Amino acid sequence: MTGFADHFSGLAARYAAYRPHYPPRLVDLLADRCERAEVAWDVGCGSGQLSVALARRFAHVIATDPAQAQLDQAEPAPRVEYRCSPAEASGLPDASVDLAVAAQSAHWFDWPRFVAEVGRVARPGALVALVTYRNSEVPGDAGALLAAYYREIDAHWPNGRVHVNNHYRDLVLPWPAVDERSEEMGGGEHAPPLEMTASWTRDELFGYVTTWSATARFVAAGGADRLEELRRQLAAIWPDGERREVRWPLTIKLARR
To answer: CA 64 to CA 83: how far, in whole Å?
Structure first.
């Protein structure tokens, strides 16, 4: 993707520190639906939030991202190979991967070009997976404060965010969908619901908020005082060091190449 819209290089260190990691159940769901577990391609891997986990079930994980700053923050791991390349021109050989998964990244792709590329790179029978999550869910007053902030920054999300908001409804994979029983199905079926969870302090939650592309754009447009107000509001109701559960329901779309 020459000239890709880079929303995260400037946030790379924070992204690596504060982005949540995917649950083992997601990796198992993907691996169990693959015919082989030799090579997984983590497309738009960021700083490797899914890549390292995939290596538990796959012999080789190729994790690509167009932003070198993100890869510079990625966790090294056996069997994980990080490469700086766009989703639409990966440089991978034809029919070479058993799983192609894009986690919280497909909404930034040039969709027609990505579909052509994944069709080229995925071997016949490979699993193609899209994973996304929308707003974090926090119980009580902290959740209400976060929801209010979400509403205020809504206009500052880049255009691709619309796909996250509609649960990837319009990102259509042109191959048979796969359901939770690994049977081939036609048309738009989703895998069973899963969620990410984290036990976070308020500082960790606030750090996560600062990784959002909308927050960066909001602050650049003069919203720094509002972001600081959110930090003070959270401090007033959430004691130092106290951990609370944060949840992200996942949307998962699977297809068989």
So the answer is: 5
Pairwise CA distance, residues 216 & 119, whole Å: 34
Predicted local confidence at residue 158, as pLDDT? 85
How does DSSP assign 196-238, residue by residue?
EEEEE-HHHHHHHHTT-HHHHHHIIIIIHHHHHHHHHHHHHHS
Residue pointed to by tokens 């990691």: 21
pTM for this structure?
0.87
* Strand 184-185 relative to strand 177-178, pairing: antiparallel
| 49 part of a folded domain | yes
Distance between CA 99 and CA 254 in Å, rounded? 10
Q: Could you list the residue range(s) of the whole structural domain that residue 50 is in?
A: 9-135+159-197+249-256
Residues of the chain with pLDDT under 70: 1-12, 15, 180-193
- pLDDT tens-digit readout, 7-56: 455 566 776 777 788 999 999 999 999 999 999 999 999 999 999 999 99
3-state secondary structure of 87: coil
Q: How many domains does one find in the chain?
A: 1
Q: How many CA atoms are closer than 13 Å to the CA of 47, on its beta-carbon side?
A: 21
* Triad 173, 176, 177: Cα angle to 5°: 75
Tokens of 152: 């205020």
pLDDT for res 9 = 54
